[in-house]
Write a structure and sequence with these properties.
This protein is an alpha/beta fold. The protein is built from 15 helices and twelve strands. Helix 3 runs parallel beside helix 11, helix 4 packs across helix 10 and helix 7 packs across helix 8. It is globular. It comes from Ectothiorhodospira haloalkaliphila.
Length: 404
């Protein structure tokens, strides 16, 4: 067996199952899961109809690069969304469809990390999406965690990375908007990262799958492609971005997304993927084309999330240390005591599941930046989110909670 498998840690939800073992929550209260970021809003009919109409495509093998019509739809969407110059994102060379960003975020590290170099590092935020860490470990690299704290706006403190660490860095994962904080990098910060990538010759993997869940259409989160283009790099050198229909279009089961950016990197990544065996099925491509070509369902989706945040934050105001994120559908709330104790007791008393923040992060010399927080995903129906907020408030006002 690959010995690097022994370096993998349990997934956060495995830890959560263990945390809840032995608890019998109140039977009269329905369970409200706020722990996992699985969108539950209705899928767009336009995508479902396209999927159904294309089932005959299952009779043939798809190509790894995906159909040109899909790549053109993706290219058009990205150029419009991130205000790129017309024709600047070549659907032939700079776009690859993928079966959800999770598999692509993992696979990229296997493709680009050179384990023969001394001390290969993969930098990533902390807290983080655990795929980043697993990808680094199984690529033969060492993860280097960049702690995200409230006093830095939940953005990486680049000054804490030494010159030797930048020299050894081969891949930098960023999540923008951030999971779990919802913090958004501005273009100036992203251009600072780009300058470091060019100076030290590493690749930026920009996970932007939450970019379409935000609260103002007038000022949506910027992306790394736009930052590169406006920094004078029309070829997006050393940049690969990841987008998905899971959050944007409520299609997590479709497993559809794309990677785009540096044509040189994508050429080698395409070569890797032809061996990896992960071509997108034709019906999935048809549904994806329909989804990328339609913005009306995305606006409706955002409006529903906005209603949830407005309602939940009003209920929790004055009782819980929590703020509206810049984007995304998570609340990154402080707990009155230990985050595991809070999550376990909330489940026991109110039948609500939240995810301890320490499960999303790693201990470093500066501490564990997830400790004392929980992540709450507002993906349940509006009525359930409101009910959950009232239950959380009731718990926070209770004697057991105040005793923590």
């Amino acid at each position: 067996m690959n010995p690097d498998l022994d370096r993998l840690q349990p997934y956060p939800f495995q830890k959560l199952v263990a945390l809840k073992q032995g608890i019998t929550p109140p039977a009269h209260l329905s369970h409200i899961p706020l722990s996992i970021g699985e969108p539950a809003h209705p899928a767009p009919e336009i995508a479902l109809e396209a999927l159904q109409a294309s089932l005959a495509g299952l009779a043939r093998y798809p190509v790894t690069r995906g159909g040109l019509e899909l790549r053109r739809a993706i290219s058009h969407w990205a150029m419009q969304r991130f205000q790129l110059p017309t024709g600047s994102l070549d659907p032939e060379r700079q776009v690859l469809p993928v079966n959800g960003t999770r598999e692509a975020l993992f696979a990229l590290a296997q493709c680009v990390v050179d384990r023969t170099r001394n001390n290969p590092l993969v930098l990533m935020p902390n807290p983080f999406y655990q795929i980043y860490e697993g990808a680094a470990l199984l690529a033969g690299a060492r993860p280097l965690f960049m702690n995200l704290s409230a006093d830095k706006g939940f953005l990486p403190d680049l000054e804490t990375i030494s010159q030797d660490q930048w020299r050894d860095c081969q891949l930098l994962y960023i999540c923008n908007p951030g999971n779990p904080s919802g913090a958004v990098m501005d273009e100036a910060f992203m251009q600072q990262l780009l300058a470091l990538a060019h100076a030290h010759d590493f690749i930026i993997a920009a996970d932007e799958c939450y970019s379409e869940i935000h609260f103002t259409d007038a000022n949506p989160p910027p992306g790394m492609l736009g930052a590169a283009a406006r920094a004078g790099d029309p070829n997006f050198e050393r940049v690969v971005v990841f987008h998905s229909l899971s959050k944007r279009s409520n299609l997590p089961g479709l497993r559809s997304g794309f990677v785009a950016g540096d044509a040189r990197i994508l050429d080698r990544f395409h070569q890797y993927r032809t061996y990896h065996g992960c071509a997108m099925a034709p019906p999935t491509q048809a549904a994806s084309i329909a989804a990328w070509n339609d913005e009306s369902h995305v606006k409706d989706n955002r409006a529903l999330y906005t209603r949830k945040f407005d309602a939940v934050l009003e209920i929790l105001d004055g009782i819980m240390d929590v703020q509206r994120p810049d984007a995304g559908f998570y609340l990154w709330a402080r707990t009155p005591g230990d985050d595991e104790t809070f999550a376990r007791a909330l489940f026991a008393q109110e039948h609500i599941t939240v995810l301890p923040g320490s499960y999303l992060s790693r201990a470093t010399e500066s501490g564990n930046p997830g400790q004392g927080r929980v992540r709450m995903a507002l993906v349940a129906p509006l009525e359930d989110c409101i009910d959950a907020a009232h239950r959380i408030r009731r718990y926070l006002e209770s004697a057991p909670c105040r005793a923590q």
